């Protein structure tokens, strides 16, 4: 059976009819609609003869036995955010189904080939993303916190999981699934504007950004807006304002895709008649290079001390959260470049701002690469999310070509 990328588009439409409404996709993990999507996937894979297995973390696996136990993994996620798009996550899975069909039709593959739909990539219901992939990767270390999570209706995460056959305490046993993994491939929509702006349908992902999240707390003195002369003020917001603009210089000086965002500043007393006494400022910095990321943070902290001195205020820094950059496999990146060039004429290498299941798999030591397909207007996590039909089809071809090259390389 030859690869039929148009069938993937038709199946994505079918899934949209089955699990979406006028507001978009509603396949939130650990819900009945998500189960309907998993049934749909089961029905589509059945004809390939791949065996289904749901692991301890709720990940849905389909295994096509090959000559060797070593496995090529293809993955994505059937879950969506509420009111989500028609491609995020499920494109990867349904493109994987098409590739599985082609491989099954060609006879026994040299390696075992496994398609996985990771459980709860989005974390939409309980606020914890990458549930299934982090369990399989062995990097889930927050089970005590997970136990306490509740959804908007007060239902505890362990109870919701149990309804879908998952015991939170046993979820880490999913680790066994990656034991024989030789490579992991994931196709995803870009969810950003880079490929569209370059007029390229497809790109190869170098890795996922490292992230440094900080809180800068600026402390000055509250004082009457009418009676305090301008040169007598200790205005906490002035320091925060200087830093909010200076991060542009940090990003442009460090370069190579560096991004910095001052996403929030909370001022106290926060009234129109007072100079700001405290300003709590959040900063998010991202880079694919760990050293450059460290430099970006150091620059922000030095500048904050300087601005505090200039404004006669105090500043305190604390780290809220951080994650190291996760780099994908160089050999697979080169193969992916070849595949993208073959199907689309040109390729581009780019980092991923969002985290993906692929980052967890790479963290677990499995050679990994991702393909991105262009997103129209860079939109995602909305029903407006879209990709041209012909680009969706090209992305299926690229994933198939990459799977074939990877199998040949590993055989
Ligand atoms: Zn996704």
Q: How would you describe this structure to a colleague?
A:
This protein is of the alpha/beta class and 411 residues long. It contains 12 helices and 15 strands. A hairpin with a 5-residue loop joins strand 3 and strand 4 (60-64).
Secondary-structure blueprint:
Elements: H1 5-19, E1 20-21, E2 24-25, H2 32-45, E3 51-54, E4 60-64, E5 68-76, H3 90-105, E6 111-117, H4 131-137, H5 143-148, H6 157-163, E7 181-189, H7 194-197, E8 202-208, E9 210-219, H8 236-254, E10 259-268, E11 278-287, H9 290-311, E12 314-323, E13 326-327, H10 330-344, E14 349-352, H11 357-363, E15 368-373, H12 389-410
Helix pairs in contact: 1-3, 1-12, 3-12, 4-11, 8-9, 10-12
The structure holds zinc ion.
CA-based gyration radius: 24 Å
Summed over residues and divided by their number, the pLDDT gives a mean of 96
Distance between the termini: 22 Å
Helix content: 25-40%
Find the count of extended strands (DSSP E, 2+ residues): 15
Give, in order, the helices and strands. Answer: HEEHEEEHEHHHEHEEHEEHEEHEHEH
Instruction: Report the uncertain regions.
Output: none
Contiguous helical run count: 12
- Judging from the principal axes of the Cα atoms, what is the shape? elongated
Largest sheet: 9 strands, mixed
Structural class: alpha/beta
């Amino acid at each position: 059976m030859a690869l039929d990328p148009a069938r993937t588009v038709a199946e994505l439409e079918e899934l949209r009819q089955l699990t979406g409404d006028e507001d978009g996709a509603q396949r939130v993990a650990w819900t009945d609609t998500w189960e309907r999507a998993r049934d749909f996937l089961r029905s589509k894979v059945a004809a390939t003869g791949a065996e289904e297995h749901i692991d301890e973390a709720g990940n849905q696996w389909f295994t096509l036995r090959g000559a060797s136990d070593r496995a090529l993994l293809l993955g994505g996620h059937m879950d969506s955010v509420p009111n989500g798009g028609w491609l995020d996550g499920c494109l990867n899975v349904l493109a994987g189904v098409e590739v599985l069909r082609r491989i099954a039709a060609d006879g026994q593959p040299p390696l075992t080939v496994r398609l996985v739909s990771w459980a709860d990539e989005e974390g939409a219901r309980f606020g914890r993303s990458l549930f299934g992939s982090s369990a399989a990767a062995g990097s889930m270390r927050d089970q005590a916190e997970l136990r306490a999570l509740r959804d908007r209706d007060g239902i505890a995460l362990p109870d919701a999981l149990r309804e879908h056959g998952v015991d939170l305490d046993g979820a880490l046993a999913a680790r066994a699934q990656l034991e024989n993994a030789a490579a992991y491939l994931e196709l995803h929509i870009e969810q950003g504007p880079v490929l569209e702006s370059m007029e390229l349908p497809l790109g190869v992902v170098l890795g996922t950004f490292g992230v440094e999240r900080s809180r800068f707390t600026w402390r000055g003195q509250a004082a009457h807006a009418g009676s305090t002369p301008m040169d007598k003020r200790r205005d906490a917001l002035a320091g925060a304002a200087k830093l909010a603009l200076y991060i542009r210089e940090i990003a442009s000086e460090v370069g190579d895709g560096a991004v910095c965002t001052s996403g929030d500043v909370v001022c106290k007393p926060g009234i129109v008649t007072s100079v700001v006494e405290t300003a709590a400022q959040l900063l998010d910095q991202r880079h694919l290079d760990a050293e450059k990321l460290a430099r970006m943070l150091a620059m922000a902290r030095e500048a904050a001390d300087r601005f505090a001195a200039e404004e006669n205020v105090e500043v305190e820094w604390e780290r809220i959260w951080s994650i190291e950059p996760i780099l994908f496999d160089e050999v697979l990146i080169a193969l992916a470049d070849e595949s993208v060039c073959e199907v689309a004429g040109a390729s581009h290498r780019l980092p991923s701002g969002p985290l993906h299941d692929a980052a967890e798999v790479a963290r677990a030591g499995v050679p990994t690469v991702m393909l991105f397909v262009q997103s129209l207007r860079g939109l995602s996590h909305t029903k407006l999310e879209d990709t041209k039909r012909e680009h969706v089809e090209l992305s299926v071809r690229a994933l198939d070509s990459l799977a074939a090259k990877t199998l040949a390389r590993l055989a």
